[in-house]
Structures are given as C-alpha cells and as structure tokens.
Amino acid sequence: MKSLTITLLTLLMSMGAWSEEDMISLNDYLKQHEEFDMNNVFYVYARCSAVNNKVYVLSKDSEKFKDTLAEPSLRMYERFYVEAGNVLMEIKGKRAKEISENLKATITGMIDEYTTMSNKLFIKTGTYFTESMTEDTSICNQVFIDTFAKDT
After folding, report:
1. Left, alpha or beta for 93 (phi > 0: left; psi -120 to 50: alpha)?
2. What is the DSSP-derived secondary structure letter of residue 148?
3. What count of other Cβ atoms lies within 10 Å of the Cβ of residue 76?
4. Structure pTM?
5. DSSP 8-state code for residue 150
6. Domain ranges of the chain
7. Distance between CA atoms of 68 and 55, rounded to whole angstroms?
8. Where are the alpha helices (DSSP H) in 60-130?
C-alpha cells in the first residue's frame, strides 16, 4: 500500500498536479478574498512574480518583444519577488535568510504551474500565452502601477 501511494504521488507530481482548471485565476482569487490580510498580499505578489517570470522567459529571445514585453516583465518579476519576501518576513516574523527557501519554493511552484499551462496550450494551439496568463498579467500590471510605479 505504501509503494502504491508513493507511485501515485510520483505520477501526479510528474504530470503536473495542477492543471489549468485547478489553478484559480487571480481575478477569481481577488473576488473570493475581498478583505485582504498579509497572507493574501503575499499570495498575489508571489503569483505576480511567477507570471511575470514566465512572460519574461517566453519573450526574452524575441526581437519583437524584447524591449516591450521582456524587459518590463523582468523588472516586475524581480520587484514582486522582493516584495513577496518582505511580506513573508512580516508574516513569519523572521529575517530574509530564514524565509528564502519558503519564498523560492512557493514562487517556483507557481512558475512551474504556468509552464505546465503554457506547454499544454502550445501543444494544442502553437502559442504559449494562455488566457488566464494574459488576465493575470493584466491584473499584476495594475497592481504594480498602483503599488510600486511611484517608486520606480
């Protein structure tokens, strides 16, 4: 029984346990959490870091999108990553060194989910940008403008 459980867990992880339908859109997440606490802020910042990382990775080698999409996405990925870390430090009451693995694992897991979604769409359509990625990116752009644009 133990080996069956391990096999099933391994299979689920290798398939990408989250499918596009399983990962809530940021828009739906925001609708479900109208009253925000620091945990919600951390989640949104982590998701925004992840989606911007994915957009950067998909557009950085394109001459057409290098300046207009890749560079802004890289800046937003980095800024949301730092801010997610700041929020996590506040939530946990710990220093950066103590939360760095948790932060990295959380955002990497989200990036992996966006990658799975992109790859599934590419197989079907030949494009990597899913509708939910586009919507999440739009929301994150607005969060960035509302929250950090005055700092840059």
Report:
1. left
2. T
3. 24
4. 0.83
5. G
6. 19-151
7. 11
8. 71-92, 96-125
Q: Which pair of tokens denotes residue 70?
A: 């890749």
Cα distances (Å, whole numbers) of residue 95 to 37, 42, 104: 20, 16, 14
Q: Which two tokens stand for residue 16?
A: 């990408």
Q: Tell me which residue of 85, 59, 82 sits closest to 71, measured CA to CA.
A: 59
User: What are the pLDDT digits (tens) for 78-115?
Assistant: 999 999 999 999 999 999 999 999 999 999 999 999 99
Residue from 139, 21, 23 nearest 80 by CA: 139
Give Cα separations from 74 to 9, 22, 38, 151 (angstroms): 33, 26, 24, 16
Structure token digits, residue 117: 């979604």
**Amino acid in position 76:** M
* 117 touches 129 (CB < 8 A): no
